[in-house]
Amino acid sequence: MSPSSRAFATAQVQAGYDAGIAEHTAVPSIHQSNAFEFRSLSEARDLFALRRDGNIYSRAANPTVLVFEKRVAELEGGVAAAGVASGQAAVAIALLALAKQGEHIVAARQLYGGTVDLLQDTFADWGIAVTFVDQDDTDAWAAAVRPTTRAFFAESITNPIAQVLDVRAVAELAHRAGVPLVIDATVATPYLQRVKDLGADITVHSATKFLGGHGTSLGGVVVDLGTFDFTAEPGRWPQLTQTYARVPSGSLVERFGATGSPYIALVKTKYVHDLGPSLSAFNAFQLLQGLETLDLRIARHSASALEVARFLEGHAAVARVHHPGLESSPWHALASEYLPRGASSVFAFDLPGTGDAGADFACVEAFIARLRLVKLVANIGDARSLVAHPSSMTHSHLSPAQLADAGITPTTIRLSIGLEDPADIVADLAQALAALTASPATRTAADASEPQLAASSAR
After folding, report:
1. Is the pLDDT assigned to residue 10 strictly greater than 50?
2. β-strand 320-322 against 80-84: which pairing, if any?
3. Contact 103, 128 (CB under 8 A)
4. DSSP annotation string for 398-434
5. Each residue of 356-374: pLDDT tens digit?
6. For residues 361 and 410, is the Cβ–Cβ distance under 8 A?
7. 3-state secondary structure of 122
8. Global confidence as pTM
9. Which long-range contacts (CB under 8 A, 24 or more apart) does 237-242 make?
10. DSSP secondary-structure letter at 216?
11. Pairing of strands 375-376, 386-388
């Protein structure tokens, strides 16, 4: 049908676009389309049977998302990646692709509160057992292993205390148990630390945070680093090594083992496809814009955070600062070894506690209320400096014992240092702390807390 003979209703839907023409844009395009046109039914059949790579439907694959996946995979030194709707979705599907009902995961107990909720509540509902261990206790990791264990999971830099994981040691224990080590590298990013080089096998990110960097777009990503051999014990991984119903007459290892990632193929074709935590093309585009300046931003974030941490460590109204770049940190040696480009810009500090929950909350609330530049926001990795109170916000679902195990007290305050001038950030914190310095009650509490803090540091 020629354009001149098309009716108005037809033209308003189809005029001006040819699905087969490449525009050769210099910047990745936003492919804002739910689905994609097939050149023939035979092509469609091959795509649905996974005999051919290509675009079918944006729930599981989209050209803009694919660029994002390839870029993050290369930054991590991985073989393939899956972009998803959020960091929480990335953690969930990364682990669901490894452990099913009746199986088991060993996880660090020093995790973001939402991840603990996922593992101890939702995974329990699905019949997947999780044992939480102190990430610094290698004996605890080894002792927690069961015949049904299918993964070790931890954050390379924890949120909010900024503990640095001994990735090499935990990776060795995971491999001794015959399972992959999955690392949440959200806080470190591949610029500060590429965990593949330290023995990790799979990494996940909340791309919402530093990868995007501007607090505008949710997203997550799972990366197969290509280091774990699922065929060494094929009976442990039937989802990858046995016939897969969505690949006629073959397994995912047979179909993708030589050219890609059977693991990421499973993540996409089953868990993203079936559960639908899809990354939109528009969000992938915005995350790609963030990735283009990742090294520049992270260098500024990290340097400014250390400057702020040093200021806080010397302030009379601060009981303790949790930053691995400080020589006083129990994780300073690991940070020096594993984070040569700089330590975390997400860290925490404690105000002096009184033991009275109401009084401690009121003290924290008054401090936060005095801040003007640093914003009270439940996010990290933003261009703006952010503050949060873990025990009443991000980790509020944890029990008192879990909070203590994670190093979080009622007066712990989390900071995510942004891209503002560090002198302005310090000035804002200083004026908010000034009222505490002037309070006799606060000075008494700070003095009383010193022995306890020293003992805690030693632990």
Report:
1. yes
2. unpaired
3. yes
4. S-HHHHHHTT--TTEEEEE--SS-HHHHHHHHHHHHH
5. 999 999 999 999 999 999 9
6. yes
7. helix
8. 0.91
9. 239/97, 239/100, 239/266, 239/270, 240/266
10. -
11. parallel
